[in-house]
Amino acid sequence: MRPRKIPLRKCVACQQMLAKKELIRVVRTPDEAVLIDLTGKKAGRGAYLCGKVSCFKLAKKSKALDRALKQPVSTEIYDQLEQDFIAVEDEFIAAKDRADDDE
Ligand SMILES: [Zn+2]
C-alpha cells in the first residue's frame, strides 16, 4: 500500500508548511472581498494561516495577507477578519483531531 500524499500549504504568517486541514484559508473573492473560508472551496485567490489567533496577529502586523492576496488589505478588514478568526478558532480546533497537535 502506498501512503497518500498530503497536500501541504504554507502559513503566510509564520511560513510553516502544514497539511491543508491544519490551516485556515482566507480568500479574496472575485468581487474583492476578503473573507475566511472554512470550506476551503470558495473561488478566488487564497492564503493560508495556521488555525491560531497568534498567527493571524502576526499576519496583521506584517501585512502578510496584502502580499499573499496581491491586494492592499485595510486595517478595517484585518480587524473584521481577526474577529471572525477568533469566532471560528474554537470550531476549527474542535473539527480536527487534537491528538496530533503537539503544542
Ligand atoms: Zn502560522
Automatic annotation (TrEMBL):
InterPro entries: YlxR, YlxR-like_sf, YlxR_dom. SUPFAM superfamilies: YlxR-like. It comes from the Bacteria. Residues 9-83 form the YlxR domain. This is YlxR domain-containing protein. It comes from Paenibacillus methanolicus.
